[in-house]
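[recover] target loaded
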C-alpha cells in the first residue's frame, strides 16, 4: 500500500484503467470461446455459431458513436463502469436454464456484451490521452502500446480460459463464476476511478459524434480497411479451412488461434521499439503508410504460394505468423495516432468515432469472410485482404507528418 501511495495520481489512474480493461478483456475472450465450444457441442453449424456474434459486431458500430458522446458528457469513468455492468448482465443472461438458451436470447446477450466491450475499450483508450501531458508523446505511445498489446494477449489467454472453465465448471457455472469476479472488479472501479475523467467542459451536442478533423476522418477510414483486411480471412475462412482441409479438431484450431492472438498482442507492446523509439522518433502518417505497404504484400504472397501448390501448411501458417506481426505494428501505430490526434477536451468523441470505423471494418470483414470463402475459397479472401490493406495505405498518404527526428519526451 505504501508503494501504491507513492505513485503519482496519473499513474494510479492508469493502473486502474488498465486493470479494469484487462479483467474485462479476459472474460470477453473466455465468453467467446465458451459460446463457440458449447453451441458446437449442441450441434450448431458453423454458420449458426457465426450468426450468434452478428449483433456483437453490429452494436459495436452504434456503441462507439454514442459511447464517445456519452463519455464526453458524463465522464469516462461512468462509461467504463457502465460497460462492466453490462458485461455482468450479459453473463447472467447466459446463466439461465439450457432450455431458454435460444438463438434470439443468445444473440441479445451477445449484443449486450458487444455494447459493453466497446464502451470499455473506448473509455480505456480515451483515458490515456488525459493522463499523459501533450509534450510526452513517447510516454503516450508506450502506454497505448502496452494497453493495446496486453489486451490482445489477454484475449488470447481468455480463449484458453474459456475452454478450461467449460471442462471444469460447465457452461452455466463458468458464466456465473466470471460474473462474480467482474462484480468485484466493478465495485472497485466504482470506488477508485476518478469521477470527472474525460468529461468535456462544454456539453457536446449529439451531432458532434461525427469528427470534423480531416486527420481523424482519414485515419478512421484507413482503420476500417485495415481491420476488414484481417477479418476477411481470419474470422470464418481460416478456422473453417484449418478444420476442413488440414483436418484439425476444434481444440487444435482454437488453441492455435489463441496462441496467434497472444503473440500478436506481444508484438503490439513492442511496436514503439520497432517504429523508431530507439532513434528518438514517434510515428506519423508516413510510418502508417510504410507499414501498411509492407503488410499489403503478404496476403497476396500467401495466395500466390497456395496457387502454385507450394506446401500449404508451411505457406499458410508461416504467412499467418508474419501477417500477425506486421498487422500488430500497424494496429499499434493507429492506436497511438488516434489518441495523439484527438482533442483533449472531449477526447472520447474522436476516439469513439475512430473505433466506430474499427467496428465497421470488423463487421465488413466478418460478413465477407463467410460469403467469399463459401463462393470463391480462401485464395479470394487473401486477395481481398491485400486490396483492403492497399486502400488503407493509399488513405494514409494524407495523414499528417512531422519533421524527421522528432524527439520523444517523458521516456
Amino acid at each position: 500500500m505504501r508503494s501504491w501511495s507513492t505513485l503519482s495520481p496519473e499513474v494510479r489512474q492508469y493502473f486502474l484503467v488498465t486493470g479494469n480493461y484487462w479483467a474485462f478483456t479476459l472474460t470477453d475472450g473466455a465468453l467467446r470461446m465458451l459460446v463457440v465450444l458449447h453451441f458446437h457441442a449442441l450441434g450448431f453449424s458453423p454458420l449458426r455459431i457465426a450468426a450468434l456474434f452478428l449483433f456483437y459486431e453490429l452494436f459495436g458500430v452504434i456503441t462507439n458513436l454514442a459511447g464517445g458522446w456519452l463519455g464526453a458528457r458524463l465522464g469516462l469513468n461512468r462509461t467504463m463502469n457502465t460497460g462492466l455492468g453490462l458485461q455482468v448482465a450479459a453473463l447472467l443472461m447466459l446463466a439461465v436454464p439450457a432450455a431458454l438458451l435460444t438463438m434470439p436470447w443468445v444473440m441479445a446477450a451477445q449484443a449486450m456484451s458487444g455494447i459493453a466491450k466497446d464502451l470499455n475499450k473506448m473509455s480505456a483508450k480515451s483515458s490515456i490521452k488525459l493522463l499523459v501531458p501533450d509534450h510526452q508523446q513517447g510516454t503516450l505511445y508506450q502506454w497505448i502500446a502496452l494497453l493495446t498489446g496486453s489486451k490482445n494477449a489477454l484475449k488470447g489467454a481468455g480463449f484458453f480460459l474459456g475452454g478450461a472453465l467449460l471442462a471444469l465448471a460447465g457452461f452455466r457455472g463458468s458464466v456465473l463464476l466470471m460474473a462474480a469476479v467482474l462484480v468485484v472488479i466493478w465495485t472497485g472501479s466504482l470506488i477508485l476511478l476518478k469521477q470527472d475523467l474525460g468529461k468535456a467542459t462544454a456539453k457536446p451536442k449529439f451531432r458532434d459524434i461525427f469528427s470534423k478533423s480531416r486527420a481523424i476522418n482519414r485515419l478512421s477510414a484507413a482503420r476500417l480497411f485495415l481491420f476488414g483486411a484481417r477479418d476477411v480471412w481470419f474470422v470464418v475462412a481460416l478456422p473453417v479451412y484449418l478444420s476442413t482441409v488440414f483436418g484439425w479438431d476444434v481444440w487444435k484450431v482454437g488453441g492455435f488461434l489463441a496462441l496467434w492472438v497472444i503473440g500478436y498482442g506481444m508484438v503490439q507492446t513492442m511496436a514503439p521499439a520497432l517504429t523508431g523509439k530507439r532513434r528518438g522518433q514517434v510515428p506519423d502518417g508516413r510510418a502508417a503508410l510504410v507499414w501498411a505497404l509492407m503488410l499489403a504484400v503478404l496476403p497476396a504472397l500467401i495466395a500466390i504460394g497456395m496457387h502454385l501448390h507450394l506446401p500449404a501448411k508451411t505457406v499458410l501458417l508461416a504467412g499467418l505468423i508474419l501477417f500477425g506481426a506486421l498487422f500488430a505494428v500497424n494496429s499499434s501505430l493507429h492506436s497511438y495516432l488516434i489518441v495523439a490526434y484527438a482533442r483533449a477536451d472531449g477526447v472520447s468523441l474522436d476516439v469513439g468515432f475512430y473505433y466506430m470505423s474499427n467496428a465497421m471494418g470488423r463487421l465488413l470483414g466478418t460478413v465477407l469472410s463467410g460469403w467469399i470463402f463459401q463462393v470463391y475459397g480462401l485464395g479470394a479472401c487473401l486477395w481481398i485482404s491485400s486490396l483492403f490493406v492497399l486502400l488503407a495505405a493509399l488513405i494514409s498518404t494524407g495523414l499528417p507528418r512531422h519533421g524527421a527526428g522528432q524527439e520523444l519526451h517523458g521516456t
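[recover] notes: The CA atoms of residues 179 and 331 lie 30 Å apart.
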